[in-house]
């Protein structure tokens, strides 16, 4: 018997469908949470972790500080991902695009602070460069499995930064010991003196170009100076309010990290 046999399914050389780049919802949320922590929570934790007096001055209880830290870590990624899921219900493609927009923007926010510190450039450059890097990372996110795997490795970041802030940074003295009371200085003098302090008001802002008090612009200060002693060269010994003011009150130089 001669003739050609019908080609079977295995002989037709059909290609397997390409796997979609989007990870499962669990990992997709983890990626957003990790980048959100690096972009939003970590800079805030770094600032407040070095200045626990921010909480002490407000009399914050340990649970107040812990709640604040949890909200900073949890709320942004939850809100972003909830919006993504809602958009995805209407259109899977739109949900995927929004996920990539999140990746690009959050990566850009992560890149911006170190770039601003390292490069003396204009606002256009500081906006464009992080944005381009974010877009490049988002593109690789869809093409390269190692990029998605790298973000998966970073998913514990929210917990790590949370622990560092609450239990390792100087804030731990408030969260563990609960000592969140602002201390006030008191003296024994009964002299009729009123001490008026104005934060973020440099003396030079009250002066004219020739170094005199600007009586036309600040008549109240001029009248006060005419009845008292004017010290045009005065300045505080520290650039931080929470360290400069205690030094003014008690006369002691501030100690770093205390």
Q: Can you put this structure into words, describing what you see?
A:
The chain has 258 residues and is mainly alpha-helical. 58% of the residues lie in helices and 0% in strands. It is built from ten helices and no strands. It has helices spanning 25-49, 53-56, 62-90, 92-118, 123-143, 145-153, 157-168, 172-175, 219-226, 241-250. Helix 1 (25-49) runs parallel beside helix 7 (157-168), helix 3 runs antiparallel to helix 7 (157-168) and helix 5 (123-143) packs across helix 6. The model is unreliable at 1-11 (pLDDT under 50).
List the keywords.
258 residues, mainly alpha, 58% helix
* Mass-distribution shape: elongated
Query: How many distinct helices?
Result: 10
Helix coverage percent: 55-70%
Q: How many domains, in number, for the residues?
A: 2
pLDDT averaged over residues: 83
Rg (C-alpha, Å): 29 Å
| Helix-strand makeup class | mainly alpha
Report the order of strands and helices: HHHHHHHHHH
Q: Name the assembly state.
A: single chain
Q: How many distinct beta strands?
A: 0
Proportion of residues in β-strands = under 5%
Largest sheet: none
Terminal CA distance reads 97 Å
Low-confidence stretches: 1-11
């Amino acid at each position: 018997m001669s003739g050609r046999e019908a080609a079977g399914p295995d002989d037709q050389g059909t290609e397997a469908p390409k796997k979609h780049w989007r990870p499962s919802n669990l990992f997709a949320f983890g990626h957003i949470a990790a980048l959100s922590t690096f972009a939003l929570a970590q800079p805030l934790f770094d600032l407040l972790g070095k200045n626990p007096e921010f909480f002490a001055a407000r009399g914050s209880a340990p649970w107040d500080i812990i709640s604040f830290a949890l909200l900073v870590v949890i709320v942004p990624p939850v809100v972003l991902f909830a919006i993504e899921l809602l958009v995805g219900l209407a259109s899977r493609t739109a949900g995927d695009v929004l996920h990539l927009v999140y990746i690009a923007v959050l990566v850009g926010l992560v890149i911006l602070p170190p770039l601003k510190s390292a490069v003396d450039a204009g606002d256009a450059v500081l906006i464009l460069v992080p944005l381009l890097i974010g877009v490049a990372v988002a593109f690789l996110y869809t093409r390269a499995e190692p990029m998605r795997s790298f973000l998966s490795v970073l998913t514990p970041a929210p917990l790590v930064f949370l622990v560092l802030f609450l239990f390792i940074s100087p804030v731990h003295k408030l969260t563990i010991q609960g000592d969140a009371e602002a201390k006030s200085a008191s003296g024994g003098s009964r002299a009729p003196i009123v001490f008026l302090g104005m934060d973020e008001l440099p003396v030079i802002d009250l002066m004219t170009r020739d170094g005199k008090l600007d009586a036309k612009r600040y008549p109240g200060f001029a009248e006060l100076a005419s009845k008292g002693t004017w010290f045009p060269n005065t300045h505080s010994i520290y650039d931080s309010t929470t360290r400069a003011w205690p030094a003014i009150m008690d006369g002691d130089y501030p100690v770093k990290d205390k």
